[in-house]
Amino acid sequence: MSLLPITLLGHGRLGSALAEGWRLTGAAAPAILTRADEPVCPPDTRALVISVKPANWREAVTPLAASLPSGAVLVSVMAGVRAADIAAVLGRPVVRVMPTTAVAQAQGVAAIWSDDGGARAVAHALFDPLADTVDLDQEALLDPATAVAGSAPAFFHAFAEVLAHAGVKAGLPRDAAERLARGALRSAGAGAATQASLDELIGRIASPGGTTRAGLDALAQAGLRDAATAAVEAAVARARALAGDQPA
Fold first, then answer.
1. Domain range spanning residue 163?
2. Residue 101: DSSP 8-state
3. What is the pTM of this model?
4. Which residues touch 138 (CB under 8 Å, ≥6 apart)?
5. Do 216 and 187 share a domain, yes or no?
């Protein structure tokens, strides 16, 4: 089967993760454009994947308008940049995708929204091999989806980091505490990859009256739910602020 001809604009952390995942799975072989390249799309481009910093997106995409094929679809992986704004500049159907960087290992998750069925289908062709894809029916839901998925791996890493610090405080050597916290994170990820509910996964480990239940109770008393809510709300607010920062 022939690969969908795509052009990847931007090769930062997320752009390079996408390119790596597509190479790993053989799902695509993108032509890559960076600031060092002449801003011209290959003539066979069927999808332009926009992976640049949201603050600079207009200056990055505007020079491509003249060379972008008329039938191309725009695939944005930028947080906070609305589809209508992108379409107004480039005049093509837009699909927005919010993936995690684990697309590099074909183990990501990605939220997808578009009001164009063809554009949405292109996104699925590109991201289904790399991620668990979740369709959303409103563009506004991409902001909380970004917080719960796109930003959340950093939240989990941050929790593992403070867990390791707590282990050191309890007497573990730092190296041992960090290795154990990383291993716990991997173990949790293995459970999450199954079809079990999150509540069931917790129940498999937390026996009544045991050490895990004691720790969970302490987390609840310390405000774990409030901390998670605050993190999501802050990430959503920042995404919406980014959208508001864009000039009309």
1. 152-236
2. G
3. 0.87
4. 113
5. yes
End-to-end Cα distance, the chain: 42
Match 């089967």 to its residue by tokens.
Answer: 1
- Do 128 and 16 belong to one domain? yes
- How far is CA 91 from each of CA 32, 104, 127, rounded to the nearest angstrom? 21, 30, 23
Residue 144 lies in a domain: no
> Which of the listed residues 85, 111, 136 is the one where a domain comes to its end?
136
Q: Which helix (H) or strand (E) holds 7?
A: strand 6-9
159 and 198 housed in the same domain = yes
Residue 165 CB partners (closer than 8 Å, separation 6+): 177
Long-range Cβ contact pairs of 180-186 (< 8 A, separation 24 or more): 184/160, 185/156, 185/157, 185/160
- Verify that 131 and 173 share a domain, yes or no: no
| CATH number for position 126 | 3.40.50.720
The pLDDT profile of the chain, 248 residues, written as one tens digit per residue, is: 568 899 999 999 999 999 999 999 999 989 999 989 999 999 999 999 999 999 899 999 999 999 999 999 999 999 989 999 999 999 999 999 999 999 999 999 999 999 999 999 999 999 999 999 999 999 999 999 999 998 999 999 999 999 999 999 999 999 999 999 999 999 999 999 899 999 999 999 999 999 999 999 999 999 999 999 999 999 999 988 887 755 44
